Amino acid sequence: MIDINLKGMGVALITPFKENESVDYDTLAKLTDYQLQNGTDYLVVLGTTAETPTLTEEEKTKILNLIVTKVRGRIPVVVGVGSNCTRSAVEKLKHGNFDGVNAVLSVTPYYNKPSQEGLYQHYKAVSEATRLPVILYNVPGRTGVNMTAETTLRIARDCKNVIAIKEASGNITQMDDIIKNKPANFNVISGDDGITFPLITLGAIGVISVIGNAFPREFSRMVRLALAGDYNSARKIHHSFTELFDLLFVDGNPAGVKSMLNAMGYIENKLRLPLVPTRITTFEKIRDVLRQLSIRC
How much of the chain is in helix, strand and coil states, percent to nearest 5? Predict the structure, then answer.
């Protein structure tokens, strides 16, 4: 199994599109460089923020290959591999090309609403299908099912290459329960930018971030300060982003961060249906906050 250090800030990369909605690979390369140059600890490719359900298999392969080639092993690369069909996820893990990939992020099966036993059996099969480290991803707001702390801890104890969970349930008590009772080789990663700071104070090791697409230097600094125990300095940065945290998700993800990156001059403000850009009112609020943060837009 490949060792990977997930401490710090990972960024769930967006997929930039051109006006005709084709993938803008040149801009994706520039965004990857932007992350590499500004303190991001690892990259998460083909996750929710990448609009992965709207991408073709050919596009997914090309995106992953581009990022792996750009990164050249300088920081870890994590790739999303999830499905609401366990067999499909297993086949992908067994037969896919994971050269240059350091770990997989696997979301709980969505839409089917499996039981807790079904979730356990799903992840047991996923774990057995790969030698790569596996990061669980619990996001009930999207999947329709919450994986309980008890189930997470059972998987962590029984599946040795399951090394972490990206927790986006919004339930701090549940996350704290996992942190309190987890095995030593298992970690909790925040799945929400807005609760990253308080979750680190409880023992989380960092975040897989959306806002890091736009502010990798600033947000990774907040994470590092919090991990180092400098809570006063970290809290100031956390509070400076409070309004943007809300605006990021009021019209859905990645619409918010794409509006932000567009206002900053990095990308076209294009998404693929069924996703659409933020409302004009949201976009203007984002521009106003960016101006207050002294960001040129």
Answer: 50, 15, 40
pLDDT at 292: 84
Q: For residues 78 and 47, what is the distance between their CA atoms, to the nearest angstrom?
A: 9
107-126: string of b/e by CB count within 10 Å (b at 16+)? bbbbeeebeeebbbebbbeb
Is 206 within 8 Å of 223 (Cβ atoms)? yes
| pLDDT tens-digit series, residues 199-225 | 999 999 999 999 999 999 999 999 999
For 44-66, write each residue's pLDDT tens digit: 999 999 999 999 999 999 999 99
pLDDT of residue 297: 40
DSSP letter for 147, please. P
Given a contact cutoff of 8 angstroms between Cβ atoms, the answer to whether 74 and 42 are in contact is: no
Domains and CATH numbers, the chain: 8-231 (3.20.20.70)
Report if pTM > 0.70.
yes
Q: What is the spatial distance between Cα 156 and Cα 165, in angstroms, rounded to a whole number?
A: 9
Contacts of 200 (CB under 8 A, 6+ apart): 190, 206, 223, 226, 227, 234
> What are the residue numbers of the active site?
137, 166
Residues of the chain with pLDDT under 50: 296-297
**Closest listed residue to residue 167, CA positions, set 4, 275, 6:** 6
Length of the chain in residues, anyone?
297
Distance between CA atoms of 163 and 185, rounded to whole angstroms? 6
